[in-house]
Structure formats: C-alpha cells, structure tokens
C-alpha cells in the first residue's frame, strides 16, 4: 500500500516541480487529488486485511462522489487531477501511471464479470468512459466524453461515441 501511495502522491505533485518537504506536506494537506488517492489506497488496504471498507467508501462517496470497487486492481502512480464523479467497477484493471480526470467511468457490460483494462500510462480525459471487457493499450489517450466500447491500440488517441482512433500515436504529453 505505502509504496503504491508514495508513487501516487509523487505523480499528483509532479506538476508542482521540485518541492521542499514543508511545501510537499502542505500540498498533501490541501490537495483533493492527494486526499482521494489516500482514501482509495486505504480502502484497498482494509479490503486486503478483511476490515470493512464501508466507512472509507462512504467518505469517498460523500465528499467526492467517487465509487471504487475493492475488486478492482489499480497500479501505482494513479493521478487524479480533478477527483470527482469517478466510478471504477469490480474487475476493472488500471495499470501504472494512469491519469483519470473528472467523471471517468470504468463500468461492466450487463451480466459480464470482466471490466475494462487500462494498460500503463493511459490518459482518460474528462468524462471518458470504458464499457465492458475492453483493453485500452499502453500510453493511449481517450478524449473528453468518449465512450470506449472496443479495444484501443497502444499510444492511440481516441475520442467520440463510440470512441474511434483519431491518430495512432501520441506525440506529446496532453
Ligand atoms: C482527444 C484529444 C486528445 C484530441 O486532441 P488532438 O489530437 O489535438 O485532436 P484535435 O483537437 O486536432 O481534433 C482532431 C479531430 O477530433 C475531433 N475531436 C477532438 N476531441 C474530441 C472529442 N473529445 N470527442 C469527439 N471528437 C473529438 C475534433 O473535432 C477533430 O475533428 P475534425 O478532424 O473532424 O475536425 C483531445 O481533444 C481531448 O479530448 N483531450 C483531453 C482533454 C482533457 O480531458 N483534459 C483534462 C481536463 S483539463
């Protein structure tokens, strides 16, 4: 938990450049993105140790309208710049160093027990959604309000409903 959380915090603070320990501490106290990754990792820690996750899950929902299933898998370095309205369904998998903006949803298709898989370094723009057992390839960018219903190749930029590949490679960081 702690190593994953350390990497989450580092990625969420990366935009602020080099920080003194005091500034880092103050940002950790004030930034919503840090509060949310702490709560998500705490929820996973409780689930792993068979401690009820109810209270942590409720805090995430009440304050941020975020629901994360303890049956999802989330790699280290999770970055949540505007953490609200995010839903991560059971059996979803998120690789390392992914970015999820506000209102991102990873949801199941009806009756299926396999959620979306985001490989490492995926960027899910504001309101982007992935439905069912789709795989979004390493380093792919999913545009604002896209709905991903089919696999997206690595490094592709995709957008629209249903999401279509706009370009097959991401040249610069968004
Ligand atoms: C998908 C995205 C990465 C594409 O950026 P881009 O490569 O610069 O592409 P362009 O803006 O040149 O647009 C290319 C085409 O895709 C369309 N397009 C771009 N974004 C789209 C979207 N979200 N949904 C539907 N179509 C989109 C454009 O209208 C354009 O169509 P055209 O060729 O028919 O004119 C970008 O639009 C996006 O959504 N970024 C995420 C932003 C975000 O979530 N930021 C976080 C909050 S700050």
Automatic annotation (TrEMBL):
<dbReference type="GO" id="GO:0006535">
    <property type="term" value="P:cysteine biosynthetic process from serine"/>
</dbReference>
<dbReference type="InterPro" id="IPR011004">
    <property type="entry name" value="Trimer_LpxA-like_sf"/>
</dbReference>
<keyword id="KW-0808">Transferase</keyword>
<protein>
    <recommendedName>
        <fullName>Serine acetyltransferase</fullName>
        <ecNumber>2.3.1.30</ecNumber>
    </recommendedName>
</protein>
<keyword id="KW-0012">Acyltransferase</keyword>
<comment type="similarity">
    <text>Belongs to the transferase hexapeptide repeat family.</text>
</comment>
<dbReference type="InterPro" id="IPR005881">
    <property type="entry name" value="Ser_O-AcTrfase"/>
</dbReference>
<dbReference type="GO" id="GO:0005737">
    <property type="term" value="C:cytoplasm"/>
</dbReference>
<dbReference type="GO" id="GO:0009001">
    <property type="term" value="F:serine O-acetyltransferase activity"/>
</dbReference>
